[in-house]
Automatic annotation (TrEMBL):
Function recorded in the entry: Catalyzes the transfer of a methyl group from 5-methyltetrahydrofolate to homocysteine resulting in methionine formation.
All copies of domain Cobalamin-independent methionine synthase MetE N-terminal, residue ranges: 2-312
A GO term, aspect molecular function: 5-methyltetrahydropteroyltriglutamate-homocysteine S-methyltransferase activity
E.C. number: 2.1.1.14
Catalytic activity of the protein: 5-methyltetrahydropteroyltri-L-glutamate + L-homocysteine = tetrahydropteroyltri-L-glutamate + L-methionine
Pathway terms, separated by semicolons: Amino-acid biosynthesis; L-methionine biosynthesis via de novo pathway; L-methionine from L-homocysteine (MetE route): step 1/1
Superkingdom, natural source: Bacteria
GO biological process, one term: methylation
The protein, known as: 5-methyltetrahydropteroyltriglutamate--homocysteine methyltransferase
HAMAP family the record matches: Meth_synth
Name of the top EC class for this enzyme: transferase
Length: 758
């Protein structure tokens, strides 16, 4: 049998790629040096895979920004506005597609969530005029390079059905009309790769979700052609993030030489059913090592599954693998020195996952790995019985949930009257929470963390920042202020650090998009709040102004989705524990004088399971968790929430059920497409559809913002509209922030003329 992983994190154990990219963009690293950093990362990652004993190394999975963008580039699918030459797409065009034009005139491609992960990809755009041709042989080049270095490569492609399912057509153009053109390009690259390798991994995770109506027959047609092109190599049709279920037949009749399934998802088809029906000439790659969490694999369980499958299909048709690409997990546990040894012993990062896959292979083929297996069994045993993971008081509190905890005292209409003491104008202006996280802020935090700046020194510095941000907002004339979140490293990590049941890594970075990374906290035990988490900064900020200051929290679903979550307790239960901890914080903020409290839930949509039929159960507990957090306050207190980075239209009903008084929501990158849903669904409370894109340094004009507000006012009654940017400003610089907000406030004021009566 063979062993492999479906990819490898590309950011580097010490975020080398992040640093190189940011230096390159700043003009302080040459293009040659950027290439040399990426080559050395690729080579290092191949070596890790080979040294741990895997049969193959993944090639073509590396990317300078995003692998879906790379696929667009490979296909030559570069939107016209980037003016690419047929002669090839250089780094300038590539980064323009990813980040927009630095001069500010060409918009970046839209960015959204990769399935139910916290990774973001650039949405392929396809116009009717788009022509396709094999435009970037990067994957071929990398595969050849791996061979030169003595590795057995397994190239990785995003499959054509997944690619088109994630693409958007210009206007009402149906992207499936281009499937044949795209298939031709895939066939070309596959033919070229097939002379270099045994297996070509072709990722079609979309098969684990709901398919577009034309996708199934397009899939079959496409794979007939691709399998004709593949020559003596085999296509490994690769699925992950859920089970195949109703699309199993499709996968089994694809004609591919192999099928990869993810057995870590819990909801999976019994593998039995798949093995039973597997065509005789199809190999099966079994994903048993979780590529997107950090816990050690239960080897005893995994081996028993593998032995059973091997008995039935024989070793030659069996591949052992990670469930998905470990790009969603941190790189190397060996860099973690400060974790509690007991908890650390429960974990495996990407490097260790490679070793786990090999261990499974060795054990299955009869190599003596008994000692390692025994150690694994002991660790898993210790984890299950560890007192670190369980807190009876929390379990009891969660079990004692009652209906009245889930409801505000009065319905929105009455609350609205009770909240009139806020005395806000029509079209009230606000921001989403964070202001620029300057290098100076990060430096001071680092000094404080290293013990080189005293607690008081750091506190003083943060207060100075808050003071600055409050004064600036007053000068800008914003109506509802924020403290700017300078004390927060990250909106989830910060709260994790203040709750029990969490622990933290030093280097456990995972790519979120481009050069941006997150360091998800680890939830290993029952979650509780130790002490107030945000009251001090809120109170200080409110003391500086007579305008309402928002208390600012990250919601329970987002804390859950952006953490590595224990796998020995249901996610809904973990979420409920977080919700109760945050409920206490909300009440403390209210007691400290917060008239408005914002509870961010940007990850609500991301937590949705891939299959529509599982959505309802998830949404039920997710909305419930938000309501546990938010419902304890009096009618007079206004609850806000915020969402971004996703399409929310499909879940607008659930968003309404969260019953926040005000919701701010991303909408400007898609030019208010979001609003279409309000033609058919009347959002009952107040809403602030973002009026400018904070992901780009571009400054929107006053006229442009007015136009968006006017558009929004066609869908949402004016007296329920708020004016705010799309998201927080932490990734922006001060210069563009000030100019943009000035224009935003001016636009709101201009809109007020003639509406004094409201
Ligand atoms: N968890 C999470 N998921 C999310 C989002 C989010 O905000 N958080 N937003 C969306 C994605 N957008 C994102 C937007 C920004 C960043 C981001 O800015 N990340 C920072 C790291 C943020 C952080 O934790 N910063 C820490 C540590 C900073 C750091 O790297 N320090 C350096 C030194 C810093 C210096 O000398 O300047 C070091 O330790 O080496 C801090 O501020 O304290 C980055 O990649 O640069 C990430 C995701 C969706 N998913
Ligand atoms: C990704 S949503 C961000 C919300 C947070 N309050 C901020 O402004 O940064
Ligand atoms: Zn946001």
């Amino acid at each position: 049998m063979k062993t492999h992983v479906l990819g490898f994190p590309r950011i580097g154990a010490r975020r080398e790629l992040k640093k190189a990219l940011e230096d390159y963009w700043a003009g302080s690293l040459s293009p040659q040096d950027l290439i040399s950093v990426s080559n050395s990362l690729k080579e290092r990652h191949w070596k890790i895979q080979k040294d741990s004993g895997l049969s193959y190394v993944a090639t073509g999975d590396f990317s300078l920004y995003d692998h879906v963008l790379d696929t667009s580039v490979m296909l030559g699918a570069v939107p016209e506005r980037y003016g690419a030459k047929a002669s090839g797409i250089g780094p300038d065009t590539y980064f323009q597609m990813a980040r927009g034009d630095v001069g500010g005139n060409i918009a970046a491609m839209e960015m959204t969530k990769w399935f139910n992960t916290n990774y973001h990809y650039l949405v392929p755009e396809i116009s009717p005029a788009q022509r396709f041709s094999l435009s970037s042989p990067a994957i071929v080049k990398d595969t050849r390079r791996a061979i030169e270095l003595g590795y057995l490569p397994k190239p990785v492609l995003v499959g054509p059905i997944t690619y088109l399912s994630l693409a958007k057509g210009e206007g009402s153009f149906n992207v499936w009309e281009r499937i044949e053109d795209i298939t031709d390009v895939y066939a070309e690259v596959i033919a070229e790769l097939s002379t270099l390798c045994d297996w070509i991994q072709i990722d079609e995770p979309v098969l684990c979700g709901d398919l577009a109506p034309e996708a199934p027959w397009r899939f079959l047609e496409t794979y007939v052609k691709l399998n004709q092109a593949v020559g003596k190599a085999g296509l490994l049709l690769t699925t992950y993030f859920d089970s195949l279920d109703e699309h199993l037949d499709l996968a089994l009749s694809s004609g591919c030489a192999g099928l990869h399934i993810d057995l870590t998802c819990g909801r999976n088809d019994p593998y039995d059913r798949i093995v039973e029906r597997l065509p005789e000439d199809m190999s099966l790659s079994v994903g048993l090592v979780d590529g997107r969490n950090i816990w050690k694999t239960d080897m005893t369980k995994a081996l028993s599954v593998l032995r059973d499958i091997e008995k039935r299909i024989g070793p030659d048709r069996l591949l052992i693998a990670s469930s998905c690409s470990p790009m969603h997990s941190p790189v190397d546990l060996n860099l973690e020195t400060k974790l509690k040894p007991e908890i650390r012993s429960w974990m495996a990062f990407a490097v260790q996952k490679c070793e786990e896959v090999c261990l499974l292979g060795d054990a299955l083929s009869g190599k003596n790995r008994d000692e390692t297996l025994r150690a694994n069994a002991e660790v898993l045993e210790s984890r299950l019985s560890s007192p670190l993971a369980k807190n009876e008081a929390i379990r009891e509190r969660c079990a004692g949930i009652s209906e009245d905890m889930l409801h505000r005292k009065s319905p929105y209409r009455e609350r609205k009257k009770a909240q009139s003491w806020l005395d806000l104008p029509i079209f009230p202006t606000t921001t989403i929470g964070s202001f620029p996280q300057t290098p100076e802020i990060r430096k001071n935090r680092l000094l404080f963390k290293r013990g080189e700046l005293s607690r008081d020194g750091y506190k003083f510095f943060i207060e100075k920042e808050i003071h600055k941000v409050v004064k600036i907002q007053e000068e800008l004339g914003l109506d509802v202020l924020v403290h700017g979140e300078p004390e927060r490293n990250d909106m989830v990590e910060y709260f994790g650090e203040r709750m029990g049941g969490f622990c933290f890594t030093d280097n456990g970075w995972v790519q979120s998009y481009g050069s941006r990374c997150v360091k998800p906290p680890v939830i290993y035990g029952d979650v509780f709040r130790r002490a107030p988490m945000t009251v001090r900064e809120f109170s200080f900020a409110q003391s500086l102004t007579s305008k309402p200051m928002k208390g600012m929290l990250t919601g329970p679903v987002t804390v859950l989705c952006w953490s590595f979550v224990r796998d020995d307790l249901d996610r809904s239960e973990v979420c409920r524990q977080i919700a109760f901890a945050l409920r206490d914080e909300v009440l403390d903020l209210e007691r400290s004088g917060a008239k408005i409290i914002q509870i961010d839930e940007p990850a609500l949509r991301e937590g949705l399971p891939l299959k529509g039929r599982d959505a309802e159960a998830y949404l039920r507990w997710a909305v419930e968790a938000f309501r546990i957090t938010s419902s304890g306050v009096d009618d007079e207190t206004q609850i806000h929430t915020h969402m971004c980075y996703s399409e929310f239209n499909a879940i607008i009903q659930s968003i309404a059920e969260m019953d926040a008084d005000v919701i701010s929501i991303e909408s400007s990158r898609s030019r208010m497409e979001l609003l279409d849903v309000f033609r058919v669904f009347e959002y009952p409370n107040e809403i602030g559809p973002g009026v400018y894109d904070i992901h780009s340094p571009r400054v929107p004009t006053e006229a442009e913002i007015m136009k968006l507000i006017q558009r929004a006012a066609e869908y949402i009654p004016k007296e329920r509209l708020w004016i705010n940017p799309d998201c927080g400003l932490k990734t922006r610089g001060w210069e563009e922030t000030l100019k943009s907000l000035k224009n935003m406030v001016a636009a709101a004021k201009a809109m007020r003329i003639g509406h004094q009566d409201f």
